[in-house]
Amino acid sequence: MIRRKTRAVYVGDIKIGDDAPVVVQSMTDTKTHDIESTLEQINRLYQAGCEIVRVAAPTEKDALALSEIVKRSPMPVIADIHFSPRIAFTALESGIHGIRLNPGNINDKGKIREILQECKKRNIAVRLGVNSGSLEERLLEKYGYPTGEALAESALYWSEFFESVGFTNFKVSIKGSDVLQNIEANRIFASKTDIPLHIGITEAGPLGKGSVKSAVGLGILLYMGIGDTVRVSLTADPVEEVKVAYQILQSLGLRRKGIEIISCPTCGRIEVDLPKVVKDVEEKLEGEDLPIKVAIMGCVVNAIGEAREADIGLACGNKSAILFREGQPVKRVSEEEMVDQLVKEIRRMKEEKNGRA
Ligand code: SF4
Question: Ligand 1 atom 7: the closest Cα is on which residue?
Fold first, then answer.
């Protein structure tokens, strides 16, 4: 996998593009003017590994709340602005690290130029957004509907406009809810510029379906080397977006977060309640961050091979399991104690690694 060469853009102290790892973003779903609830969610997102957070600013009241949010946020904050240049200016005065603009729904080049000049003065990054739902009329007339080509043309048009007024501190997002349209749009845009890309499948859906759709769309783009920052858009707690984003990135070897768990799909050979064991282990290890592979296998058929590959794990059998570590059996444990014993061994491993570091 060769990542596309892009130029660097900074949102606060977070580097996007160039040689930076793919940055994980999410967006709050609280009312932004409810400062305490918004900060509570921002902190939960940060704990989950979110690196940049976006908050909606649909009203002046929300934009006015930004300065307090920015002051207390543990990570850079981007204000999401649509339609209103006036709200954009209020947001820019708040100390915000970045703003997201869809020029297509402001559609006033004079105002956009003024916003960009202000961003330049204050060293604020911009995410130039193009969405299938807010594509310019002229492109809808030209293409009939928001094709990938139409979306890429819009993004290239506005990128050239940004650069023509001397503004280069921006990244682009081209989003549609259709996976193929999204891939095509990003592929065309990526072949023509070195501007960093924020990728995501917008309005992907609820947790299960949305994760699959996002994994397919983002997975293909990332495998093509495209994508400097990601957001998984789900109709769910935004913390889930961060978890899914890391799972996608981890499965491609691009980022790592938490502990990697390998578990078998179970079959008629199973003699323990493996789904429960895996769920309990996941719950107990929530928030742990350790570069290890944990294998939890239902029987010895694949356990021997996985045990060799994994750092630690369980090979289950008749109401019991063999706990193994680095390919070697450690001890036999009963079904009742297997979760606790495995977690204990993982924590011991963590302490040993920390001691060595
Ligand atoms: S590891 Fe054993 S229990 Fe699990 S799916 Fe394979 S054969 Fe079935």
Answer: 301
Residue 27 CB partners (closer than 8 Å, separation 6+)? 53, 54, 55, 56, 80, 231, 233, 238, 241
Q: How far is the CA of 300 from the centre of ligand 1 (A)?
A: 7
Q: Give mean pLDDT, residues 322-350.
A: 93
Mutate to test the pocket of ligand 1, among 262, 263, 266, 272 (most ligand atoms within 8 A of CB): 266
Q: Express each pLDDT in 126-148 by its tens digit.
A: 999 998 888 888 999 999 989 99
- Quote the ligand 1 centre to 23 CA distance (angstroms): 36
Q: How far is the CA of 265 from the centre of ligand 1 (A)?
A: 7
Average pLDDT across the chain, whole number: 93
Q: What is the pLDDT of residue 357?
A: 60
Structural domains of the chain sorted by starting position, each given as residue range(s) with its CATH number in brackets: 9-251 (3.20.20.20), 260-352 (3.30.413.10)
